[in-house]
Amino acid sequence: MTTASTDIARSPTDLDLLFRTYHRDLTRFARGKLRDREAAADLVQDTFLRYLAHEAHGEASLSPASPRFFLWRIASNLIIDMVRRDRRRGVVASIDGLDNELVDPAPAADRRLMARQEFQAIKQALDELPPKARAALLLSRVEGLTHAEIAGRLDVSASMVTKYIMTALRHCVKRLAAFDL
To answer: I want to staple 75 with a disulfide (CB 3.0 to 4.6 A). Which of 23, 32, 47, 181 is the partner?
Structure first.
């Protein structure tokens, strides 16, 4: 008693031989069309399964003259089906990428309050500075000027600019530490 699978194994179109002969080329073909290694591997596997199903249920008169041509035809049809299915489904978005899209870009109320308090503390610390020390710090940190450029604007030496900036920084650090910021 023979089963369909043993008849196929003994047939001239031995599936194992076909697999070893055409698997690599068929995979390369599918990967080139799909641009996805995993999808190509699945498609090739489905191709051989469909070929096997055809051989198991087909009549001798319906057997393909060229197994290679038939395998490529099955793969091409599966690729077309896959592309059509993907078009119907639309673009699949990862849920990981949705975090940034769903989150409100505005800061939370508590963060806005903290930012306002920090701003007030910094403004108060800067207002308490002597005018030249304040100007030297702001020209250095905000405007990005060099010590020589600041010295020219304030009409003092570059070493005095360094002293102004250090004095201003120490004062701001001390005042902000008092606000626990």
So the answer is: 47
